[in-house]
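Support request from a user on the community tier.

User writes: "When I paste my C-alpha cells into the form, the page sometimes reloads and wipes my input. The last time it worked, I copied everything first. Here is what I submitted, just in case something in the input itself triggers the reload:"
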C-alpha cells in the first residue's frame, strides 16, 4: 500500500515517519520524500491512527489525488534544489518534474496554482532562495559559487531575484545573519 505524506523534506523526516509507522506495527518496504510503501494495506482505523501519529510531527497523510500529485511535484523540486548532484542541477526543472511525477508538465503547471495558489516556477524560486539563504549563513561559498551551484545564469540574476523577494541583497543578508530562513515545509 502506498501512502502520500505532506511535509517530508529531509532524511530526518523519513526517519521519523518510518519510526512512527513501525511503532504502529506496519512494515515499511520503501520510503522516499513524500511517499511510503507499506507491506500490507492499512484499514481505515489504521489510516486514522497513522494520520494522528504523523500530525504530531507536522506531517499530513494525503488522500486527495490532486494533493498527492502536487506533493510529488513539490518533493521533486526540493530534490532538484537541495541535492548536490551536478547532473541533476543542470537538468531543466520541467523535464525533471515530468520524469519524477510521470505526468505532462503543462497539466502540472495548470494544476499546481489551482491547489497551491502559486506557480511551479514561483515555488521553485522560493526553494532556491531558501537554499541561497542557507548557503549564505554557512558562509563557505562565494556568491559566484552559490549562483553556479543553483544554476543561475549570473550573480547579477541571483542578486536581483534575491532582492526582489527578500528586500535586501545577498551581501546585506550575509552581514545581518539573523537567520531569516523558513523551514522547507513552510516555503
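"...and here is what came back when it finally went through:"
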Amino acid at each position: 500500500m502506498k501512502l502520500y505524506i505532506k511535509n517530508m523534506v529531509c532524511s530526518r523526516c523519513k526517519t521519523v515517519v518510518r519510526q512512527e509507522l513501525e511503532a504502529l506495527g506496519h512494515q515499511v518496504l520503501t520510503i522516499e520524500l513524500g511517499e511510503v510503501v507499506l507491506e500490507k494495506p492499512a484499514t481505515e482505523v489504521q489510516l486514522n491512527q497513522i494520520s494522528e501519529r504523523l500530525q504530531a510531527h507536522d506531517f499530513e497523510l494525503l488522500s486527495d489525488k490532486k494533493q498527492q500529485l502536487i506533493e510529488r511535484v513539490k518533493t521533486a523540486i526540493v530534490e532538484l534544489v537541495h541535492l548536490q548532484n551536478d547532473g541533476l542541477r543542470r537538468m531543466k526543472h520541467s523535464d525533471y518534474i515530468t520524469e519524477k511525477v510521470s505526468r505532462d508538465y503543462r497539466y502540472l503547471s495548470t494544476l499546481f496554482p489551482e491547489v497551491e495558489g502559486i506557480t511551479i516556477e514561483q515555488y521553485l524560486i522560493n526553494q532556491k532562495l531558501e537554499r541561497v539563504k542557507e548557503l549564505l549563513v554557512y558562509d563557505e561559498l562565494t556568491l559566484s559559487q552559490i549562483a553556479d551551484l543553483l544554476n543561475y545564469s549570473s550573480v547579477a540574476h541571483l542578486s536581483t531575484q534575491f532582492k526582489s523577494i527578500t528586500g535586501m541583497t545577498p551581501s546585506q543578508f550575509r552581514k545581518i545573519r539573523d537567520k531569516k530562513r523558513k523551514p522547507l515545509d513552510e516555503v
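Agent notes: The reload is a front-end session timeout and is unrelated to the input. The mean pLDDT is 90. The first strand starts at residue 2 and ends at 6. Escalated to web team.
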